[in-house]
Amino acid sequence: MDEKLEAVFWNVQQRNPGEVEFIQSVKEVLASIGPVLAKYPKFAEQKIIERICEPERQIIFRVPWQDDRGEVQINRGYRVQFNSALGPYKGGLRFHPSVNLSIIKFLGFEQTFKNALTGMPIGGGKGGSDFDPKGRSDDEVMRFCQSFMTELSRHLGEYTDVPAGDIGVGKREIGYLFGQYKRISNRYESGVLTGKGLSFGGALVRTEATGYGLGYFVREMLAARGESFEGKTCVVSGAGNVAIYAIEKVEQLGGRVVACSDSCGVIIDEQGIDLPTLKQIKEVDRAPIEKYTEIRKKSQYQRGGNLWNIKCDVALPCATQNELTGRDASTLIRNGCQVVAEGANMPTTPEGIKRFIDAGVAYAPGKAANAGGVATSALEMQQNASRDAWSFEFTDRKLAQIMKDIHDRCLETADEFGVPGNYALGANIEGFMRVAEAMQSLGLI
Ligand code: NDP
Ligand code: 2IT
Questions:
Q1: Which ligand lies nearest the alpha carbon of 192?
Q2: How confident is the prediction along the chain (445 residues), in pLDDT tens digits per residue?
Q3: What's the distance, Cα to Cα, between the start and end of the chain in Å?
Q4: How many Cβ atoms are within 10 Å of 274's Cβ, its own excluded?
C-alpha cells in the first residue's frame, strides 16, 4: 500500500477498533487506489479518502416487539448512511443474527462504490438488525418490521435514504416495512423503498435482478476470454434470492449448475439443479435445502459440506461474506475453475482473491458483479418517480446493458492503470474516482 494510504488506513483501524469486516473492506479498496493518487494527486487533497472512509451518519436503535407467546423481545436496529455525494443513500437491509455495526459498515462502504459503478444517481447506505426471521411466524415478522420502521422512518425519504432487501429481507418484509412507513408518514411515497411487491409500486425484474445481472456479467467475462456458458459446469453457493436467480440465468445461458448450498449443507445434482424444486423449498416452504433430495432422488446432500470442493469451470459465491477462503480458492484452481464472480458482498477472503489473481483466474468482485440488484432498484425508483411500469423485457434489456457497461468499464480502467484483466482493481479505481470526483465538486462535505 502507498505510504499516504497506509497512514489513512492506520487511522481507520484506530478509529474503528474491532470492526473486522469494515476494516477488511477499507483495506481492499485503499490497497487498490495507489495508482489513482499517482496519476491524479488532486484526490489526496482535501482529505477526500479520509472522508470516504467515515460514514456521513450512523444510526443505532432499539427495536422492541412482542412474539406470539406474548413475550417481549429486544433487537438492535442499524442504518449507516455512508455517502450521499452521488444521490440519496441507497442499499439493502439485512436481518440475520450475525448482524453488527462492523458488518453494516462494510456493506455500506462497498455499496458506495458499487452504486457509483452503476452510473446511476444513488449514494451508499446499508442497514439491518440482528433479528432472526428463521422460524418466526408471519405475524411476528410483521410486528418486528413495524417496530423497526417506527424508528427508521424518521431517517428515510425518496430523496434522503431508500432501503431495499438483503439477507433475510425479501418481498414479505418490504411489504410490512412499506405499510408501516405509509401509516406513520401519511404519504404514499412509493420511492422510499425498493424491492416492493408488484401490487404496491414494485418493478418487474427486481426480484431476479441480482442473480440475472451476475449471469450477464459472467457472460461478458467469458466472452472477453473468447468463451461462453455453453458446456460449462457451475457451482453457486447459497439458495436465497441471489443464488436462485443466478442459477436460473446460468441455465438459460447454456451453463449447468451442479451444486448449491444453504447455511446447513450442500446439494449436488449432476443433472443440473432443478429450479422449480429449489424455489418451492426455499421461497415457498422456507425449509432447509436438504429437502431437495426427497424430490430429486439422484441428488446428494452433504450436511456441513464444502461447496468449493466440487469441480467446476465457474464458481459463483452468492451466500455471505468470507465464505470462500484461501484454501477454497486453491482447491477451485486445482480443479480447473476459470471464472469466479461474486453474487454476495465480499464473499472471498483477501487470501482467496490473491490466489485467484495470481493463478490467472478471471475474478470479479461483488461491487461490480452483483450491482444488477441495486441498479434495478434505481430503475424501480425511476418508474415510481414517473408513475410508470415497464415490461419485463424492457427492464431486463436495460439490466443486461448496465451489466455489460460495468464489465467494460472495469476492464478499460484496469487497462488504463496497467493491470489488464484485473476486475478488482478496475472496479475499485473506477468506483472510487466517481465518488471522489463528485465529493470534490460539492465542496467540504
Ligand atoms: P437470502 O437471505 O435470500 O439468502 C442467503 C442465502 O445464503 C441463504 O441460502 C442462506 O442459507 C445462505 N447462507 C449461508 N451461510 C450464511 C450466513 N452465515 N449468513 C447468512 N446467510 C447464509 O439473501 P440474498 O440472496 O439476498 O443475499 C445473498 C448475498 O448477496 C449477501 O451477501 C447479500 O449482501 C448479497 N446481495 C444481495 C442483493 C439482493 O438484491 N438481495 C444484491 C447484491 C448483493 P439459509 O437458507 O440456510 O438461511
Ligand atoms: O447489496 C446490495 O446491493 C443489495 N442488497 C441491494 C440494494 C438495493 O438497494 O437494491
A1: 2
A2: 888 899 999 999 999 999 999 999 999 999 999 999 999 988 888 899 999 999 999 999 999 999 999 999 999 999 999 999 999 999 999 999 999 999 999 999 999 999 999 999 999 999 999 999 999 999 999 999 999 999 999 999 999 999 999 999 999 999 999 999 999 999 999 999 999 999 999 999 999 999 999 999 999 999 999 999 999 999 999 999 999 999 999 999 999 999 999 999 999 999 999 999 999 999 999 999 999 999 999 999 999 999 999 999 999 999 999 999 999 999 999 999 999 999 999 999 999 999 999 999 999 999 999 999 999 999 999 999 999 999 999 999 999 999 999 999 999 999 999 999 999 999 999 999 999 999 999 999 8
A3: 26
A4: 17
> Domain 209-364 adopts which CATH fold?
Rossmann fold (3.40.50)
Query: Which of 263, 301, 323, 399 for a ligand 1 pocket mutation test, highest count of atoms within 8 Å of Cβ?
Result: 263
CATH topology of domain 3-187: Rossmann fold (3.40.50)
User: Can 3-187 and 209-364 be said to share one CATH topology?
Assistant: yes
**What DSSP designation does 387 have?**
T
Catalytic residue status for 279: no
The reply to whether ligand 1 has any atom less than 6 angstroms from the CB of 324 is no
Contact 211, 249 (CB under 8 A): yes
Query: For residue 341, how far is its CA from the centre of ligand 1 (angstroms)?
Result: 15
Domain boundaries, the chain: 3-187, 209-364
Is pTM, for the whole model, over 0.70? Answer: yes
Q: How far is it, in rounded angstroms, from Cα 341 to Cα 352?
A: 12
Give residues with Cβ within 8 angstroms of 151, minimum separation 6.
61, 62, 63, 77
